[in-house]
């Protein structure tokens, strides 16, 4: 939104001066890739084409894209069981991710991770950790290694609001705080830990307020505004890279789907859903791009059509990928 002292034209020019048009279009396309991937995967699971289960992130695209677009090539992320969006935002291809969900040996984790454990170390993403809060102490440990090696790298650690109730949250954040470790703790607050609303399990109005108890900076951000997330993460990453971290970012967002594939979301009040769906991150950002003159509506429609075509082509490929063999049981195993 424009600053109160800015006209709409001044605000638009300010954004265009800060963010080149190709960068803005890239953010939009990456969010659309995540949305179309998740929507396509939902139907593939419903028809029984894929093994396992899924935890999806429709509606949370701006958190993943905004954070990962602010990281540098050598930076890492840790993720959760809801990690498809994080993976795509961090640079994993639609094909490698989809092959993994089909259980193929050509997938990003050779068919051994599945939906809940996607990742690629070459892309800077530790395979997802399904234990709630499990990635938080891991991220602190990684950041400690970077500091001891004097490497100017940062870890962005994704977790949900439910993880804040885990002991691992306190332990990991406190460790990072007392040693000034380069971690950006990214809480995707979608208001629900499984089916329990966050205000039923904590007195604080904002999760970011908890940062003060560890002596670090906390910030609450509109998690459905990709540029707001990007800018907040840029600032936090810069602080971490210069020894002023860690930082706790609370990104307010909302998932359009259930906790897992069999969850109909009956616990979400309809008026609440309606309010959040009107703040859809892709629609909002698409409207901004049109307003700025970066792209016409037809161009945005074409981006979506191209993404849908790529996904369908990847599905055709995925159905013919090789599965792991019995011999693969003893590979990639450490004792």
UniProtKB/TrEMBL annotation:
Gene3D superfamilies per record: 3.40.50.970
Transmembrane segments: 125-146
Cofactor annotation: thiamine diphosphate
UniProtKB keywords: Membrane, Oxidoreductase, Thiamine pyrophosphate, Transmembrane, Transmembrane helix
InterPro entries: DH_E1 (IPR001017), PDH_E1_Alpha_Subunit (IPR050642), THDP-binding (IPR029061)
PANTHER family associated with the record: PYRUVATE DEHYDROGENASE E1 COMPONENT SUBUNIT ALPHA (PTHR11516:SF60), PYRUVATE DEHYDROGENASE E1 COMPONENT, ALPHA SUBUNIT BACTERIAL AND ORGANELLAR (PTHR11516)
Protein name as catalogued: Acetoin:2,6-dichlorophenolindophenol oxidoreductase subunit alpha
Organism annotation: Paludisphaera borealis
Lineage of the organism: Bacteria, Pseudomonadati, Planctomycetota, Planctomycetia, Isosphaerales
Gene name of this polypeptide: acoA_1
């Amino acid at each position: 939104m424009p600053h109160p002292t800015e006209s709409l034209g001044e605000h638009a020019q300010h954004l265009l001066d800060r963010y080149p048009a190709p960068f803005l279009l890239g953010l939009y396309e990456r969010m659309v890739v995540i949305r179309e991937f998740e929507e396509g995967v939902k139907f593939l699971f419903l028809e029984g084409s894929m093994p396992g289960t899924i935890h999806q992130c429709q509606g949370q695209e701006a958190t993943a894209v905004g954070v990962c677009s602010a990281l540098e090539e050598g930076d890492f992320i840790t993720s959760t069981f809801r990690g498809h969006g994080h993976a795509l935002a961090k640079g994993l291809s639609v094909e490698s991710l989809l092959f993994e969900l089909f259980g193929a040996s050509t997938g990003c984790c050779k068919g051994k991770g599945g939906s809940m454990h996607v990742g690629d170390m070459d892309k800077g993403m530790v395979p997802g950790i399904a234990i709630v809060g499990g990635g938080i102490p891991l991220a602190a440990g990684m950041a400690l290694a970077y500091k001891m090696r004097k490497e100017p790298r940062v870890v962005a650690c994704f977790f949900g609001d439910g993880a804040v109730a885990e002991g691992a949250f306190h332990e990991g954040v406190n460790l990072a705080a007392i040693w000034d470790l380069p971690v950006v703790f990214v809480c995707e607050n979608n208001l629900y830990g499984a089916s329990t609303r966050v205000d039923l399990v904590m007195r604080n109005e904002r999760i970011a307020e908890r940062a003060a108890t560890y002596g670090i900076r906390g910030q609450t951000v509109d998690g459905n505004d990709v540029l707001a997330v990007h800018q907040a993460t840029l600032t936090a990453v810069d602080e971490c890279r210069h020894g002023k971290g860690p930082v706790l970012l609370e990104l307010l967002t909302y998932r359009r789907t259930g906790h897992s594939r069999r969850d109909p979301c009956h616990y979400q009040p309809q008026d609440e859903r309606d309010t959040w769906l009107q703040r859809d991150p892709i629609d909002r950002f698409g409207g901004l791009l049109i307003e700025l003159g970066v792209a016409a509506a037809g161009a945005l429609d074409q981006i979506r059509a191209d993404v849908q075509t790529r996904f369908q082509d990847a599905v055709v490929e995925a159905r013919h990928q090789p599965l792991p063999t019995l011999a693969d049981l003893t590979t990639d195993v450490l004792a």
